[in-house]
C-alpha cells in the first residue's frame, strides 16, 4: 500500500513539528508527514511534490484539507464526518483518525453487489489481468468482469453503451444476453474502442451499476477501464474500491507524477485518494502470487 503524504501547516511551528514527528513515528510505513510554518512554504512544496492530505488552520485550493481547531466541542467528533480535527489530542488518536480516512470504503451488508474499478494511466501494467483475477475471486454468487478498455478485440453484439445513454428499458435484457463465461468468472465486453466510452458520464455508470445489480447474478462487478476511456472522473464515485496498478521504471514514475498533478490541479484528488496502489506481479491471471498482491494492497 502506498505511503500517504501528510502536510501540517500551522503558525505554531512547534506544534506542527511535534505532530509531524508523532505521525511519522506511530504511522511509520503508512504516513510521511511534513510540517510548514506558513501557506507560502506549503505552496512552494506542492509545486514539486504532492500531498494526499493537509492538516491546516486555513483551506488551500487544490489540496484535500482537514481543518485544525482548538474548539473543545470538536474533541470527540469524527473528522471523516466534520472535516475538522481537534488539535490537542494524543498523536495516537490523530493517527487512528488518519487511518480511517484512507481505509477502503466498507461494503454495506445490505448491498447485493460490490463494484470495483481497475484503472491506471500506464500501459502494460497488468490492469486486465488484475481485473479478471478480482472477478474470479468472488465465491459468493460469482464475479463479473466488465471490459471498458481503450481497444478490445471483443465486443458484445448488443450496443450496450447506446442503450445505456438512452436509459433504455431494454438495457437489462441486453446485459443478460451479453454475459459470456470465461475461466472462473463471467464477462461483458461493453466497448471495442475508447471512442465508444468517450461520452459516458458518472451518472451513466451509476445507472449501469444499478441495472447490473438488478440482474442479481453477481456479488462482485469489476470494471477494466482504459486510460483513455472516460473524460468524466466523477465515474469513480460509483465504485466501492479502485485498484491503481503502478510500475517503478523511470518513465512510468514520471507519467504517474504527471497524472497525479493533473488530478490535483483539476481539484479531483479526493476522488482518487482512496485508490489502492498495486504493482501487479508478472505471473498468470489468477495465480496465487497475484491473489496475494491483491490482498496486500488492501491491508
Could you give a short description of this structure?
With 299 residues, this protein is of the alpha/beta class.
Mind explaining what this structure looks like?
It is built from 11 helices and 12 strands. It has 299 residues and is an alpha/beta fold. The strands form 2 sheets. The chain has a 7-stranded mixed beta sheet with strand order 8-9-7-10-6-11-12, with helices on both faces. Strands 2-1-3-4-5 form a 5-stranded parallel beta sheet. The longest helix is centred in the C-terminal third of the chain and has 16 residues, at 250-265. Residues 106-110 have low confidence and may be disordered.
Give the key terms:
299 residues; alpha/beta; five-stranded parallel sheet; 12 strands; elongated
Average pLDDT number = 85
Radius of gyration: 21 Å
Measured distance between first and last alpha carbons? 7 Å
Structural class by sheet pairing and helices: alpha/beta
Biggest sheet: strand arrangement: 8-9-7-10-6-11-12
How large is the count of helical segments? 11
- The number of E-state strands comes to 12
Largest sheet: number of strands, sense, barrel closure: 7 strands, mixed
> How large is the share of residues in beta strands?
15-25%
Q: Which parts are unreliable, with pLDDT below 50 for 5 consecutive residues or more?
A: 106-110
Helix content: 25-40%
Shape: elongated
Question: H/E order of the elements?
Answer: EHEHEEHEHEHEHHEEHHEEHEH
Amino acid at each position: 500500500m502506498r505511503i500517504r503524504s501528510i502536510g501540517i501547516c500551522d503558525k505554531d511551528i512547534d506544534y506542527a513539528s511535534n505532530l509531524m514527528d508523532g505521525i511519522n513515528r506511530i504511522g511509520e510505513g503508512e504516513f510521511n508527514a511534513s510540517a510548514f510554518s506558513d501557506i507560502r512554504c506549503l505552496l512552494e512544496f506542492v509545486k514539486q511534490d504532492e500531498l494526499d492530505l493537509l492538516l491546516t488552520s486555513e483551506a488551500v485550493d487544490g489540496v484535500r484539507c482537514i481543518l485544525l481547531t482548538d474548539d473543545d466541542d470538536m474533541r470527540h467528533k469524527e473528522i471523516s464526518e466534520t472535516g475538522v480535527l481537534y488539535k490537542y489530542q494524543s498523536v495516537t488518536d490523530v493517527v487512528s483518525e488518519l487511518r480511517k480516512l484512507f481505509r477502503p470504503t466498507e461494503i454495506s451488508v445490505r448491498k447485493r453487489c460490490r463494484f470495483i474499478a481497475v484503472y491506471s494511466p500506464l500501459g502494460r501494467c497488468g490492469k486486465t489481468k488484475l481485473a479478471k483475477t478480482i472477478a474470479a475471486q468472488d465465491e459468493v454468487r460469482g464475479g463479473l468482469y466488465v471490459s471498458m478498455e481503450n481497444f478490445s478485440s471483443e465486443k458484445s453484439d448488443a450496443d450496450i453503451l447506446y442503450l445505456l445513454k438512452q436509459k433504455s428499458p431494454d438495457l437489462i435484457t441486453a446485459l443478460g444476453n451479453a454475459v459470456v463465461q470465461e475461466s472462473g468468472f463471467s464477462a461483458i465486453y461493453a466497448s471495442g474502442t475508447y471512442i465508444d466510452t468517450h461520452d459516458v458520464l458518472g451518472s451513466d455508470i451509476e445507472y449501469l451499476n444499478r441495472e447490473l445489480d438488478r440482474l442479481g447474478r453477481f456479488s462482485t462487478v469489476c470494471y477494466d477501464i482504459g486510460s483513455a476511456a472516460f473524460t468524466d472522473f466523477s465515474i469513480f464515485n460509483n465504485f466501492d474500491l479502485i485498484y491503481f496498478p503502478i510500475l517503478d521504471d523511470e518513465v512510468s514514475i514520471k507519467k504517474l507524477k504527471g497524472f497525479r498533478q493533473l488530478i490535483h490541479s483539476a481539484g479531483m484528488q479526493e476522488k482518487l485518494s482512496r485508490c489502492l496502489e498495486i504493482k501487479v506481479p508478472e505471473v498468470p491471471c489468477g495465480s496465487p502470487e497475484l491473489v496475494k498482491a491483491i490482498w496486500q494492497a488492501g491491508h
